[in-house]
Structures are given as C-alpha cells and as structure tokens.
Design brief:
The structure is a single chain. The chain has 496 residues and is α+β, with helices and mostly antiparallel strands. It folds into two domains: 197 residues, no CATH class; 241 residues, Phosphatidylinositol 3-kinase Catalytic Subunit, Chain A, Domain 5 (Orthogonal Bundle), CATH 1.10.1070.11. Helix content is 50%, strand content 9%. It is built from 26 helices and ten strands. The strands form two sheets. Strands 1, 2, 3, 4, 5, 6 and 7 form a seven-stranded antiparallel sheet that branches. Strands 8-9-10 form a three-stranded antiparallel sheet. The longest helix has 25 residues. The chain is globular and about 70 Å long.
Amino acid sequence: MDQLESLIPASYFLIFLPQLASRICHKNTDTWDILEKIIVKVMAGYPQQANWIMCSHWNSSSTFRSNRAKALFEKAKKNDAIKSNQTEVLFLSANLIRVANYTEKGASKCTTYQLPNICPELSERKHFNSIIPLQNSLTPQLPLSGLANPSFQVFNNSLPIISSFGHNVETMNSLIAPKKITIKDDKGMQHIFLAKPKDDLRKDSRTMEFNAMVNKLLKKDPATRKRNLAIKTYSVVPLNEECGIIEWVPNTSSFRSILSSLYPKIDNNLIKEQYSANVNPIDRYNYLSDQYPPVFYKWFLNRFPEPSTWIDARNLYCKSIAVMSMVGACIGLGDRHAENILFDSSSGSCLHVDFNCLFWKGLTFNAPEKVPFRLTRNMVDAMGVSGTNGIYRSVCEETLRLLRNNRDTLIRVLETFIYDPYIDWIQNQSKSNSKQQGEVENDKGIYSLKKINNTLQGIPDVGLQLSIEGQVNSLIKEATDPLFLANMYIGWSFYF
C-alpha cells in the first residue's frame, strides 16, 4: 500500500480529500497510518487548496477529530511557505466565522455593517498570500487521458489571491441572517461570498461534491456529453459544523422574484385564506391556479428576444431542471421552494441552492413534502407545447440511466455522511455513542445511503422494481399531483 500511495500523484488524492478527511477518526492504527500519509502528502503538495478543505476539521466540535486534524496540519509543515499559509487560512476561517455570527440587538434585517467595526482584524490586515476559495481555484483539472502526467498543470499559474476585504457587510433578508461579503483579489477583481451562520454547510459541500461527480460522469458518457448536460455548481467551504462561506453566483434571480415581477399583484391575504382549515385542498389548488395562471414563459421572451437565443435558453432550461430533478429525487432533496431555485439571466439555466433538506427530511415536516422535486405549472408551461413529454422527459431518462449505471461510484461520494455526520444527526445520537472516541458509524447515514441505493435501482418503498421510463413517469406524476401540491406548506407556493 505504501508503494501504491507513493506512485499516485497528490493531485489525484486532492479530488477525494473531503472523502479521505471524513475518515480521520478511523480507529484502526494501520489504516490511520496510511490515511495520514496520504492526507499529509496532499496538504504539503497543494496547501492553498487543502488547507481550506481541512480547516473545518481543525475547528470541529469533536475533540478527537480536531486533534487529528491539528496533527495533520503539523506534519504537513514541510517549509515556511506551507506554515505561513496554514496560519493564514486558520486566521481567515476564525474571523469569517466571527463575521457570519455577528449580530446586534434590535438590528433590522438587511442591515449593512462596516467591516472595520465588526472585525477590524480582517479589515486592517494589509497582506495575504492565500487563494480566494472559488470553485475553479479548489477543483483540480486532470489529464483527459486519466493517466498520470508529471508535466500537466492541474491548476492555473495565476489563481486569484486575496488582496483585501470590502468594507460593506450586508445582512441578507433571511431567518439566519447570512452576511454578504466582498473579497478583492490581487488583480483588482471583486468576488462576492455569503457567510452563513447556524447552518451545517457540510451538507451543501457534500452535495456539491456529488454534483461535481455527476458532472464528470455526464461529460464522460457519449449520450449525455452530446447533449451538453451539466449541473451548475459553485464553491461551498465549511468553516466548522455550524458556519461556512458560499461563492455568490452572478446573473441569477430566484424563481420567486422573477414571478413576483411578472404577476400584476400577489394577494397574500387571499392566499392565507385558502390555507384555512375549512378549505378543501383540491378546491385550494383549483382556486389559486385560476388566480395565478402560468407567466414564466414571459421571462424567456423578455430576456432572450432573439429567436435563436430564445430557443437555446429554453432548451437549456429544460435540460438543467431535468438533470437536477433526477439528482434531487435520488438523494431526497426537499424544500425546493421558490427562493431555493435560481435562474441564470444570461443563459436560462437553473441553479439550486440551500441543501439543508436532504435524505427525504421533507417527509418529517408538519406538512410532509410528498413531491420529489419542484415541477409546478409555471415550470411545465415554460417548456413549450410538449410540456414534460419533450426534452425534459428524455433528459430525465438519460440522466437516470447514467445515475443507475454509476450507482456504486456515487454512493462512495456520499459515504462521508456516515463517518462525519452532520450536526443534526450527532445531536440525536445516543449519549453512549456521542461519548465514544474515534470513528462511529452513524445509523441515520447508513439508513439514508440504503434508501438512495434503492432509489438509484428503481426500487420503491412499496411495489416492484421500476424501469427507467417507469420511474421517470412515476416521479413526474408525483411532482405534478394536485393533491400533493395543494398540501405543501404555504411558503412553498405551489401556485408559482
């Protein structure tokens, strides 16, 4: 194993560093020795990227995990440059956590703070040598052949380096009040990030890793590559179990904001009346559907007035929502309300955000989410006259075929949830498990992966195994079922 480890380039291990890092609490001494060598090799070979990935383990609330991470950082200090970068990334993570968690009593939402007032350490520092943790800066590019090539450059020579932080820190209008911050690079460009408190961004980060693997498979497969299928992704960097930063994607607007601008008026009082206890769900569905007919197609006409760009945007729209429909259904992604789905005004493609509701968690809500993904009338109408029976359905089938064929690979990516479970699962563990030192397999993680494994094979909770076409048809029926939609919680806005 030692010989094999020495033959594989550090860049190859860097791709799987999050999965490797999830196992740093492994109890077996021999396994840990090999794992330690691999991670140290990556941290020494690519400190700019690896230190950002590993800082959440340093800041972990688990003493055992934190101590293991600190030992890795110490062994990776091969020279002064690596030591300096480690110190800086840990400094940055500590202060970004501080900014994310900053609150003032009585402050209204959307308050703008001045960074020198809330975190002078970040504002006053004049020199940085760390890269900005953008997606392109953290993701290595490997040779197309897949073979090791010592001369191949996995990263651009001029990755953006942090120069300074913008003075304005804007609090977003959200329940957890994330902060919008600006990082300026050494070339004068500005990069926007969202610093989120009170949210375990390891879920988002691992979902991005899953989506990135799906993208690799989509590029490798001839049928999906020909159709240019892909998921729009972005950088998510957890800083500890309850805080992290997210790369801001430009030119995007939420589905809700788009529709709010297209409807003449949205009567919230009327909507609340329809959710009163004495209104039949089907009557609610029919009434609100009549009040808010489909208008999303107008956005495409307004944004893409040229016929050729319009058809390209609409086709890309159909493809992007189809891919995410299948991916979301397979990992139990819920809470797809109109604020969590964004659209790119430059291309028409779809972007999903906020992956807090994973593994069918929506079924545990007071108003259980029975729809597998968002496919409301507005979304179907914008597909054109063929609706779900055109590009959308064919891409769903192609995507599901790909996911099924690569089931084992995709399951491996999600295994991190078993060995480094997110905070909700830890809090619900038995006291005896929580006191154990070292790696403990999480029961909820094991159950969730088994359910994903069954879903990827078309095995429902009740009934016979489905074909690809049968599973797609079943999912579309569930997503458009008037009764399921009418019983969604009010904020999901099924009429949008």
